[in-house]
What does this fold into?
Amino acid sequence: MPVQRFRTTLLALAAGLTVSFASSAFAQGTLRIGMTAADIPLTTGQPDQGGEGQRFMGYTVYDALVNWDLSSATKPSSLVPGLALSWKANDKDKTHWIFILRKGVLFHDGSEFTAEAVVWNLDKLLKKDAPQYDPKQAAQGRSRIPSITNYKVIDKYTVEIGTADPDAFVPFQLAWIPMSSPAQWEKVGKNWEAFAKTPSGTGPWKLTALTPRERAELVPNKAYWDKARVPKLDKLVLIPLPEANTRVAALRSGQVDWIEAPPPDSVESLKGAKFQIVTNAYPHNWVWHLSRAEGSPFNDIRIRQAANLAIDRKGLNQLLGGLSIPATGFVQPGSAWFGKPTENKFDPAAARKLMAEAGYSKAKPLVIKVMIPSSGSGMMQPLPMNEFLQQNLNEVGFKVDFEVMEWNALLAAWRAGSKDPLSRGVVALNYSYFIQDPFTAFTRHVQSDLVAPKGTNWGHYKDPAMDALLLKAKTTFEPEAQTKVLQQIHEKFVNEALFLDITHDVNPRAMSPKVKGFVQAKNWFQDFSPIYMQ
Amino acid sequence: MLLYLLRRIFYVIPIALAVSAVCFSLVFLAPGDPLSAVLPPDATTELINKLKADYGFDQPLPVQFGRWVTRALHGDLGTSIATGRPVNSEIGRAIVNTFMLAMCACGIGFFFGLLFGIVAGYFQGRWLDKLMTSIAVTGVSMPHYWLGMVLVIIFSVLLDWLPAMGAGASGSDDWMWDWEHMKYLVLPAVTLSFIPMGIVTRTVRAIVAEILNQEFVQALYAKGMSAFGVFRHVVKNAAPTALAVMGIQLGYLLGGSILVETVFAWPGTGFLLNTAIFQRDLPLLQGTILFLALFFVLLNLIVDVAQGLFDPRIKR
It folds into this structure.
């Protein structure tokens, strides 16, 4: 009867409204993460979206031959065996490495990981006529393994990888290369788009659902080869939320349990609402990359040192709400490569003295133009931070003008080098660096032959002594001896003030108090296996 | 009318070409690399040049544009550089979500806009008129982005009544028209409805006030027609103008609001464009803008035809 039906409908509506107004309840053990990325990173094996991509879709679904140790929040993170049990450069010919692979490792599709899979994956990135060659993955992966020129199967569990010159950094390079399943690629019709929907790696997580631009769901790989790292959670959900305020709102309304990079001005209120704010040092720096092209004032060491002495790094840390580590060198304090340089300090009087010796003062300032981004990956809060630096430097005899660029435009200028018209005649460029391996930390910035188009020595720095040190580090295969050389390189970086060293990010994350077991490693990447929800 | 329709459809071709050419040029004129979507930040210029050859970006711009137009004429808008997915499927997925959001926002905005506008027009000069007009002015003046965030703070964070973002607990793929899903529409739709509400209110108020002052209305009352009967005449006379305004607003909303969709992480064409712009994903940008431009032209055509149906004096 119509009246009866109306009443029933009304009751159902009321019940539905009541249920939906109640806070959403998820099954125990589901962690929902709001990422800063605007899309789910590529799921095919070589993720895009930089460090965040590798963090969420690289080392989750996949492993590399060499992995990072992500188990400690206090020790620097180092390389550990992944799909390779061990590796060694040939004693007689250091251009050839032998990798002994782990036996009995299965991809998610059940096929076995063998030396053939390693060669297949390298072909995917390096061999254009290979059927599995993927330009998108090659774009991401090729630049990570610049030294590798040849590779072959020795036996089912042994691979030989060759380089053009002896290069002790090869293990660092291979840590960037996750291994996708050749069998799965065949099964889905040799098509990377199809593979992306049902990827298969050897990692601790399996992708079970993917809605592009909206969410990805991962579940534990119960057959993972590292039993200690089989995930505790029932499910991991990744949600792209590029807008920072949206991430905070999603966390506070209970729609996600964890957000990456909360804006600094939300931290106090999140803490007040009992959310956890987790931070740690990691290999990141935020610097001004100085031009050493002809005519640049930063060719004068007095001016470089004066600039470093002028910066009130502790004051900047206050501006950032404590979410930074003032730089005492180029790499972060506690890094194995730090060595014993003359650490950066704040001494404006000493800065003024050096500037005076160079012929400048507040009355007669050195005018410099610096390129800065309005935002960007890893750039923290570039506009207020740079304005702070501008004030500091103007106090000691600089007059700083900014060329403010959109992030991709600044990237183009950075790749092109300080002499290129794209750099608009600036003498410094504000950038934040991934400094987790020796090449990215040191070599790429200062090796003299790595200027554009071959590399990103933006400032055109050239010093034979530095080149000799870099070559020595590259060809020192014993880890402790290599570390000592890298320390010498870092000391030279800092003592000669090659960069304006400002600060280091602390990779803040905000999470619900229900999230337990997370250990934030001193690394760009993190391990989600020990996490559980309470 | 048929000739008029054919003529309007024919005009679409030069409009589409012009829109495509402008969009194509603007992306290349903007600094940054069209391969930003796939390149790691520290990719060297050498690698970039190799990849440009792979993607065909080393060809002269007119050649690239010509190839793209040829494919577009066959319905192929290319492949997103960032994702490798066909642009057609990216747009198809996003436009459905934007359509839902736009229709809801228009429903709310037009309903209240018409209501407030008619009330304001009928009570011109009195306190009701002033109240409705103030609401309308507030609506058109309020920044979307800010309003969206305020609504999220109140209704999601403080009251926990509505979700802050997304298009469903499991994403938009399993959308259903039940409250569990529709609650995700409420805040973004209300946010988006304010501007159309304000514009429609002001337009309808002005038209209604003008019509009520016309002699034929006085004549209708003098003839003894009821207030409701006069109201019907007023609505019929106001409809063409109101329709035109509403059509334009619908077109804007169907184009997707970049800001609102980003604030609410609503997976529509606005969110898609936002990502494509920052990634310099040229095929996705071009395809999406072309699609939206054509859609806007089509919508205007529909509005013109509808105007003619409402008002026989409008001859096409």
Observations:
- Chain B has a mean pLDDT of 86.
- Chain B touches chain A through 61 residues (CB under 8 Å).
